[in-house]
Design goal:
The chain is an alpha/beta fold and 259 residues long. It has a single domain, classed as Ribonuclease Z/Hydroxyacylglutathione hydrolase-like (Metallo-beta-lactamase, Chain A). The chain is built from seven helices and 17 strands. It has a seven-stranded mixed sheet, with no helix packed on it. It has a seven-stranded mixed sheet with strand order 9-10-11-12-13-14-16. It has a three-stranded antiparallel sheet with strand order 4-5-15, with no helix packed on it. Helix 5 runs parallel beside helix 7. The longest helix is centred in the C-terminal third of the chain and has 12 residues. The radius of gyration is 17 Å and the shape is globular.
Length: 259
Amino acid sequence: MPVEVTWWGHATCTVEDSGVRFLTDPLFARRLAHLRRRRGAPPPPEAAVAEAVLVSHLHSDHLHLPSLARLAPGIRVLVPSGAPDAVPGLRRLAAAGLRLTEVAPGDEVTVEGVTVRAVPALHDGRRLPFGPHRSPALGYVVEGGARTYFAGDTGLFDGMAEAVGPVDVALLPVGGWGPFLGQGHLDAGRAARALAELSPAAAVPVHYGTFWPVGMDGVRPHEFHAPGDEFVRQAARLAPKVAVHRLGHGERVRPEVAR
């Protein structure tokens, strides 16, 4: 099989294509500010093993400095352009041995023969709560034996399918970490609409059912538990030809794709 996907929780996935491992938005913590991990154990040490890391935007649940610090020196880390200026801790990690590469939509980077292309995302990519608008939010398409789209955080936007290009596997956010989703996010229904536009062979829902605010266990709990199943249901209606794989934390799948 050309590609294997492991979901570690939230937006953290390993995509292995042609023997090259890519790690997306690593978040290995049990707790992050007001959020705590409510489902699934933190990723094991093997999750930090990769040839390259893809960081979609600067929010601390996607660009998490302590998690990046667990990576071995020499790993290439793709970050949105301007990220080291907006997040000075990245420079310290670079001094410790991580290889930072800044990218913008349309840029391509080759990692051991596998191409990674940065694509646009509709999301506020600032370092919150007060960071300036210095860096774009991104998605990435990993293209080797298959074309795998990691959407990061994004809302639906005009021309999404054209901006992303043809893909075989789509890793789509279908929820969030709180009882309400702001603008620039996909819920299960909007993610299913995106899936219908992108028309891949397979999809994996991510970015749900992992972190939840402390003390809010009883506030709209369906927003925490339900998005994965709801995405499966909506995708069956709007994109019935797509094989949807709803993974548990730490589970992996080898989607069937025709290349």
